[in-house]
Specification:
The chain is an alpha+beta fold. The protein is built from 9 helices and 3 strands, in the order βββααααααααα. About 40% of the residues are buried.
Length: about 180
């Protein structure tokens, strides 16, 4: 006899659902988790715009989550907005300053904006914090080559190659003129 109706509403910056039966409505708060999960799904299925919206919504509820800032930055990269990506990766690093993935991605964003000195600083920190991370040495070597030309990046490209990175082997052979 009694029917329930649901309507979406917004209160105090949190998206929620109100379940109403008769004249009484009970707010049900939805936390950040559904937005995180949908954002991960959208990002993995090449919908960076939708992922960005979901991560922003989740961050409005959980602003201290470094991983959310990282994924927001990844969404901005997918949208080719490297300035916003750099800001998001920097926020992630405020919460987890030695995370090599966050540093690497911020460095890549800076590289794409032609901020080579800042990118080099990030890649250098990556190699300092994780001396076995091939991608850090690869990006450091490529950036050194870009900044100064010559063979300045060869030792880092060689290190990445020795750590097993195939792309580094090709880059090392091309940049350093050796087989």
């Amino acid at each position: 006899f009694f029917s329930s109706r649901r309507r979406h509403t917004r209160f105090r910056g949190v998206t929620g659902v109100q379940t109403c039966a008769l004249p009484i409505c009970f707010p049900v708060t939805i936390g950040p988790e559904p937005f995180k999960q949908r954002g991960y799904y959208r990002l993995s299925h090449r919908d960076p715009s939708g992922a960005k919206d979901d991560f922003l919504q989740a961050l409005s509820m959980e602003p201290d989550d470094a991983q959310l800032w990282f994924y927001l930055g990844s969404s901005w990269v997918g949208l080719k907005n490297f300035k916003e990506a750099e800001k998001a990766f920097s926020k992630a690093l405020e919460h987890d300053p030695q995370n090599v993935e966050y540093l690497l991605h911020r460095g890549q964003s800076r590289y794409r904006m032609s901020e080579f000195d800042h990118a080099l600083a990030d890649f250098t920190l990556v190699t300092f914090y994780d001396p076995d991370y091939d991608s850090g040495f690869y990006h450091k070597g490529i950036t050194l080559q870009r900044i100064s030309g010559g063979k300045t990046g060869c030792p880092d490209l060689r290190k990445a190659m020795d750590l097993g990175m195939e792309e580094a082997k090709t880059a090392w052979q091309n940049a350093c003129g050796q087989n």
